[in-house]
Amino acid sequence: MTAALGVWLRFISAHASSSTVSSTSWTRYWTNLDVSSGTDTDLRFQVYVQTSGVNLDLDDATLQDARVTDAGFDDSASGWTLSPGGNYAVYSGASPMGSNYLETNATSSGGSVYQDVPATPAPGHSYDAAVMLRSPGGVPVQVDLVLWALGGPSPTELGQSVVTVSSSTWAPFATDVDVNGAGHNDLRLQVFVQTVGVNVDVDGARVDADTVGPTLSPLRQLITAIAVNQDQHRAQVVEDPLDSNCNPFSAYFGRGSTVGDNGAACQGGTRAEEWCSDFAQWVWTLAGEYPSTVTGWAFTWVNWGTANGRFKPGATNDPEPGDAVVWGDMGAQYGQHVGIVVGVADGLIDVVSGNSGPLDAQGNVVAVWESGYFDPALSSIGPYPIVGYVAPDGFNGT
User: Fold this and answer.
1) pLDDT band at residue 308 under the 50/70/90 scheme
2) Which phi and psi (to 5°) does residue 88 adopt?
3) CA 378 to chain centre
4) pTM above the 0.70 mark?
5) Which CATH code is given to the segment(s) 2-212?
6) How many CA atoms lie within 13 A of 51 on its CB side?
7) Cβ atoms 170, 134 nearer than 8 A
8) Which of 219, 385, 397, 381 is nearest to 318 (CA)?
9) Domain map of the chain by residue range?
10) What does the DSSP assignment read for 114-158?
11) Cα 191 from chain centroid?
12) Domains 2-212 and 218-397 share a fold
């Protein structure tokens, strides 16, 4: 197995070099050790400063078991399996986890590499997986990152993030699986390459132990479960009729119109208005936390959170599963979108939101959609970044 070491580093003064830490912004750096001996008694984490006379800042050092064999590909991809339609090779070169990385491509859509990790995932808990990816040629390539819960008497379960990797710079990508069935005995981390003939580089794989379960308050667990249950992988809630904004969540609060934006009558008891805020409020309300002054306007979440001591301003200000995340403009007191955080891993967040999803043929978003993991610091909807998070209970799950 592999032990992974991470630390946040920055220069006090910038010094541009491709082989040194050169940014005044905090950035996470990793290394790894593939352990083969059973006689070692200690792990030492050591940071050498090789440039004389230049200050380096460090923070948040961590040491963890990546739970993946050859996570940094220093042992010729030992433990990894290639599926039909895929190719891979291990190359030497600078990478997030050391001096090697794996490069893979697909001769047919869905070619993949994967590894099975012995585990006993517990029902009601959530498990995370992550890898570092890059497109060495800077060519966009679709990758499906999947974490499976396998084996035992229960049906196979999975969590999936569909991402486009288009940068030649390494970046983290993550996914998780919410386990409902008992008796699974494996977690499989699988990287599917869906764009044929384009290389993807892989490094720094890991599979985490339980990260969303007893550590969250019961309210946050319930909010997360309710939100996820409505997404494209489960209930598959969409507007009825499509492209109308007619949805069941606005109808729950008696908001909107019985006639959709496209002029068609709303079906199945739905009502029409832009509905991301209605969905988020519905999720919290069903979980037992009713934000009474929230309306169909996304910025009312910020107002309610501020008035109740629950607003955490800033895109990276301690997001937690169960939080409402708001995109907008604080100065203009405008909210563009709001969703529910359902996962947090390595500084990335996963969100389920209403009035969301990929654009359809009419250029509209019509579904409840799980985003997959992304960097909140870089996220924007149109010109609007994340302005902060609204907590359903005390911060840090209290």
Assistant:
1) very high
2) -155, 160
3) 13
4) no
5) 2.60.120.260
6) 13
7) yes
8) 397
9) 2-212, 218-397
10) EEEEE--PPTT-EEEEEEEEE-TT---EEEEEEEEEE-SSSPPEE
11) 15
12) no
Q: For 239-242, which contacts have Cβ atoms below 8 Å and span 24 or more sequence positions?
A: 239/270, 239/366, 239/367, 240/266, 240/267, 240/268, 240/270, 241/266, 241/267, 242/360, 242/362, 242/364, 242/366
Using one digit for the tens of pLDDT, what is the confidence trace for 28-79?
566 666 666 667 767 777 888 888 888 988 765 666 667 888 888 988 899 9
List the beta bridge partners of residue 247: 271
Q: pLDDT tens digit string along 129-153? A: 989 999 999 999 999 999 999 988 7
Cα(394)–Cα(398) distance, integer angstroms: 5
Query: What is the CATH topology of the domain spanning 218-397?
Result: endopeptidase fold (from Nostoc punctiforme) (3.90.1720)
Spell out the alpha helix ranges (H) of the chain. 218-229, 248-252, 276-287, 300-307
Radius of gyration, CA atoms only, the chain: 22
Residue 88 structure tokens:
């891979």
- Map residue 308 onto helix, strand or coil: coil
Q: Could you say which DSSP state residue 378 is in?
A: G
Give the distance between the most distant pair of CA atoms in the chain: 73
Collapsing DSSP to helix, strand or coil, 288 comes out as coil
Cis peptide before 241 (omega within 30 of 0): yes
Residue among 188, 221, 214 nearest 321 (CA):
221
Q: Are the C-beta atoms of residues 332 and 345 closer than 8 Å to each other?
A: no
Structural tokens at position 94 = 């600078």
